Amino acid sequence: MPPPFAPLIPLVLLLPTLALAQNVHLQGRFLPLRGPEADARPPVGEARAVVDEDGDVRIDLVVSGLTERATSATLHTGDAGDNTEQVARLDVVADGSEARIIGGTADLTPIVAQQVRNGAAYIVLRTSEHPDGVLRAQLAPQARTLDTAGNGP
């Protein structure tokens, strides 16, 4: 006769998979890669990213106060202070001194997706005058909130 908890065994074995299947939300604030010119206010902005269970990432960002035209944003894996190759490139919408991406997406390899989930990732905003980047936002995982739980309207 099977033990009374036998019907629960498949569910218990599935729990680690369910925990990994949650979307991971990340956020970062943009900081200048080089000092601003004298008496100039540096641009400000933030980036948010969500990595889903399939390794797809959605990126939203907004920056204001730019004195150069933004051309693209690139996603990189690495910790603060690292300078690594890009793993994804996204086009930005540039409007005067502002730049934004709403709903930009990229497919990541499983290894890269896990690095991003762990917070070992950053976004570089590139401009026509600084194609190597003018701003950088280190992405950090965010705590689950009611907004990110997906249980509301």
Beta fraction of the residues?
35-45%
Enumerate how many helices there are, as a single number: 3
How would a textbook summarize the main sheet?
A: 9 strands, antiparallel
Instruction: Estimate the mean pLDDT confidence.
Output: 85
General form: elongated
Distance between the termini: 46 Å
Please identify the structural class as seen in this structure: alpha+beta
Number of strands: 9
What order do the helices and strands follow? HEEEEEEEHEEH
The strand line-up of the biggest sheet is: 5-4-8-9-1-2-3-7-6
- Residues in helices, as a percent range: 10-25%
What Rg do the Cα atoms give?
Answer: 19 Å
Short recap of the structure:
With 153 residues, the protein is α+β, with helices and mostly antiparallel strands.
Q: How would you characterize this protein structure?
A:
The protein is α+β, with helices and mostly antiparallel strands and 153 residues long. The protein is 16% helix and 44% strand. It has helices at residues 9-20, 110-117, 146-149; strands at residues 24-32, 44-51, 56-64, 70-77, 86-91, 93-95, 98-107, 121-127, 135-141. It has a nine-stranded antiparallel β-sheet. It starts with 8 loop residues before the first helix and ends with a helix.
